[in-house]
Amino acid sequence: MKKMSKLFCGLLAATMLFTGVSFPFTSNISEVKAAEADYSYEEVVDDLPTGDLLKGKEYHFSNSDLKKISSIKYQANHVLASYYGASETYKWTGYGSDYFYGKMSAKQKAFYKELQKVCQKYLNKKTNCSSSYDPDYGTFYYLDPVSSSLSRTDTIRVLQIFAYSNPQYYFLDHGFVSGYSSGYVYALTAYPQFAKGSTRMSCTKKANNTINSWVKQIKKQSSLMKKITKAQALVCNKVNYATSTYDQSAYSVFCDNKSVCAGYSSAFTVICEAAGIDTLILTSSLVGYEHEWNMVKIHGNWYNMDVTWDDLDNQYDLNGDGKADSYYYEYTLRNDQNFIYDYNYRNYNMLDSYYSHYPESIWKSYSIPKANLDTSPSESSMYMSAGSIKTLDKPSSVKLKKATKGVTVSWKKVSGAKYYIVERKVSGGSWKVVAKKCKSTSYTDTSAKTGKKYSYRITAMKNSKTVKNYSATKTIKR
Predict the structure, then answer these.
(1) Residues 32-80: pLDDT tens digits?
(2) Apex 394 CA angle, 439 and 400, nearest 5
(3) What span, in angstroms and rounded, lies between the C-alpha atoms of 141 and 176?
């Protein structure tokens, strides 16, 4: 079960000494696998917050299934999913992450879109899932099949990425079924509990009520930091960490009181995306350390986020006020280094976070974003207070115009900005500051000379410690 890797671990392991042994951030995966061989699965599950992440199964269509799927009668009873877009009741397509989709090829995107259409159909219609039998796994339920001209490797990769990137389709169980009949066909599989259309529609309505309520609360917050910590609080206050019937699904959070890492990160993604905050889901597949967590994009920068590991389940009093705490912020919006090398690594040389947050290869194949900035929650306060975001949005709608004397630069106001820095570069030269503390949203560079080409960029600042986040570069010939 989940064990919190937190400051109180120091009390549980007071005799452990910090050895100072270095563990390179780019450590070879073979070292990780060698290290995990020292643990049995039972010991790991008992002692580490692995999240109880389960992998989806691969089923296979029988010959009779394939014959049925290719029949005219079957096709007539399974109207193309694209016909179901006009009268959507639940417009949840925007409740998933599009980060990895944006890195796919045109053919991969086309297959992804067909999966999206199918899921929209099952989200909005009382369509029963089809069922079949696999000798290894027993009876399973699946959505309408989709043909694929991609290689098997690419197809499976897209199927997996789609399921993890679209947790709003709570009825998916992360498995899939495949077969060949005049071409390869694949279908996503569903939880048996959501196979019946009328039951699923009732569950969708129930989940939608929670989602709408939570998104309204998130949107009311005055800053992005508060929006994200509110989303975390809603999830942590709703559930306790425990296995359940739907624990790999966001449904376990929205409509139950128990979940594991898959449910935590899935529900967090749904409500953040619905509130306009970019997220993505990552998983680790190291044996005994299977885990799922998030990354969140703020002002153009990505941060790591593990809602599961920040949930205290009201079991511990970290700040000593005599009250059990629901959650804290050690794993809230952290950079790569502090996320991996957490308090337990720095103080007790424990590598739990490194193993559990080692992304599996499916994500690496599409390039995982770097998290370079850190919100720096205070270790001295036992992480009971969230850190702070050190960037602002980059200025947009930058325009250049020749002035009577020089060049006028203008841009849109950035929320939270106290002033702006304007930089200029002459063709072939380097960037130089021409306005250190511009309080308005325009500036006239009177030193620009006629006949020369100039480039400009602007960054919004809250104070001198704000990390610069430059606008798009614009160029003009004076």
Answers:
(1) 333 333 333 233 223 334 457 887 888 888 888 887 877 666 665 665 5
(2) 65
(3) 10
67 three-class SS? helix
Q: What CA–CA distance (Å, rounded) separates 295 from 292?
A: 11
pLDDT, position 181: 74
| The residue to which tokens 């929320």 are assigned | 415
Q: Domains in the chain and their CATH numbers?
A: 9-53+208-364 (3.10.620), 58-199 (no CATH), 399-477 (2.60.40.10)
> 215-235 as b/e, with b when 16 or more CB fall inside 10 Å?
bebbeeeeebbebbbbbbbbb
Handedness of CA 84, 87, 90, 96 (dihedral sign): positive
CA dist., res. 425 & res. 457, Å (int): 9
Of 3, 2, 5, nearest in space to 353 by CA: 5
**β-bridge partners, 138:** 134
Q: Which two tokens stand for residue 435?
A: 């306005």
Alpha helix positions (H), 166-240 = 197-219, 224-238
- One DSSP character per residue, 401-416 reads EE-SSSEEEE----TT
The pair phi, psi for residue 408, each rounded to 5°, is -100, 125
So what's the pLDDT on residue 66?
Answer: 82
Of 381, 339, 338, which is closest to residue 7 (Cα–Cα)?
381
Q: Are strands 419-426 and 453-461 parallel, antiparallel or unpaired?
A: antiparallel
How far apart CA 334 and CA 7 sit, in angstroms, is 17
423-447: pLDDT as tens digits: 999 988 999 999 999 999 999 999 9
What are the residue ranges of helices labelled H in 93-149?
106-124
pLDDT < 70 stretches in the chain:
1-51, 71-88
